[in-house]
Amino acid sequence: MDGRIIVITSGKGGVGKTTATASIGAALALQRKRVAVIDMDIGLRNLDVVMGLENRIIFNVVDAVKGKCKLKQAAIKDRRIDDLFLIPASQSDNKNVLSPKDMVQFGEKLRREFDFVLMDCPAGIERGFENSVAAADEAVVVCTPEVSSVRDADRVIGLLYARSITPKLVVNRIIPEMVEKGDMLSHVDMVDVLSIELVGLVPMDDHVLISTNTGIPLVLQKKSKAGEAFQRIAMRINGATDLPIEVPQSQDRFWKKIGSKLGLGK
User: Fold this and answer.
1) What is the DSSP code string of 136-162?
2) Structurally, how many domains does the chain consist of?
3) Rounded CA gap, 127 and 4, in Å?
């Protein structure tokens, strides 16, 4: 097995990287891929809570990298989805406990065990970022339709290219009504500014909060528009490059389209 290591990053905090990591990882596992999601936010951790696995942690990524435990001991199997595993961050160490060299060596072990490894990168572009991208083959940049988020994403994209990593873009927390009124950046504007391949558009969705509070994967919530979007993103990452990207639309725009199809409103 020669697995793919993908870093999920943004530069700016609070844009939904952890939710994206958990959701894409769960969706890939549902596609019968063996997946590990790794929380790289050393000193703080949230991925375990989002996945509802916070009470099952014994070892963490620092233990696994430093040889204090075996990789299989640190990898916590998800309760609901086969072939999905979490390697949590350490809360008692700081980011300097690991080095990029450590992560490159650890990455070789991960590739032999998993089809996909998703690194949940901490905010910022310092040691946590360096450790997260060290072993990565690919990157997904999560960005919200805000000028500050786009600016930070642009900075991170430059750093990824400097490391010969080609990033892809996920636009998160889209509110179609605001986009249509011109009060929120459109994905077209964002792709034009950032000049990278778009892999998915995720609408604002109350189910994200429900998922975070309950530990139920977003992709298992049938009425979740965000969950559906992350499933499609995972399919593209897994090779379905011809799958069209669905653009979130407001209900008003949806019904106007239906009316035009039926010859109404003319």
Assistant:
1) -SEEEEEE-SSHHHHHHHHHHHHHHHH
2) 1
3) 22
* pLDDT score, position 129: 94
Q: Is residue 266 part of a domain?
A: no
Q: State the chain's maximal CA–CA distance in angstroms.
A: 71
CA distance 217 to 20: 11
- Residues of the chain predicted below pLDDT 50: 254-255, 258-259, 266
SS3 call for 201: strand
Q: What is the mean pLDDT of the chain?
A: 92
Q: Report the pLDDT value the prediction gives residue 222, as an integer from 0 to 100.
A: 86
> How many other C-beta atoms are found inside a 10 Å radius of the C-beta of residue 3?
19
| Number of C-beta neighbours around residue 107 at 10 A | 19
CB atoms within 10 A of CB 33: 19
d(Cα 219, Cα 242) in Å, to the nearest integer? 21
Number of helical H runs and strand E runs in the chain: 12, 8
Tell me the CATH number at 183.
3.40.50.300
Residue ranges making up the domain that contains 156: 4-261
